[in-house]
Amino acid sequence: MAHANAELINALRRTAEKLAKGAAYQWGHMGSCNCGNLAQELTKLTKAEIHQFAMQGRGDWREQVEEFCPTSGLPMDLLIADLLNYGLTTSDLQNLERLSDKRVLDRIPVEKRYELRHNVRADVVLYMNEWARLLEDELLPQVKIDLSFMKTEETSVFAHQV
């Protein structure tokens, strides 16, 4: 599972929101499918650029991720390496393309969980939002907030009241 971090969580939410609002979506197009839309958000590449990179390799996202070689120099491998730098794993990319990560699916109500279709915009939006919530739930316990400054303010407020 992805390394939970704010940048990835926000990218998942922004991608889901854009898809919900009508961003280009076509599951059979490497630049505007599930992974392609998230890749657009994280890398700022266009759907056309992502698709062009993918056409230099073979297969869909799952197959290209399976054949991923970080030292090949191929544009698609460089793109995948960039996505991994955001905390994603190769399994995350394969699961996103098919909406198949068990931990994400377990959080979706049972009546909807078994009806998800990997190539339906609304299902992709639901999956991405739930994945973002899962990552956020993992990240929040790690966040430490220093509130020591409040103790000095409280002390000074009480000192002025006396």
UniProtKB/TrEMBL annotation:
Domain of life: Bacteria
Name of protein: Uncharacterized protein
The species this protein was found in: Arcicella rigui
Lineage: Bacteria, Pseudomonadati, Bacteroidota, Cytophagia, Cytophagales
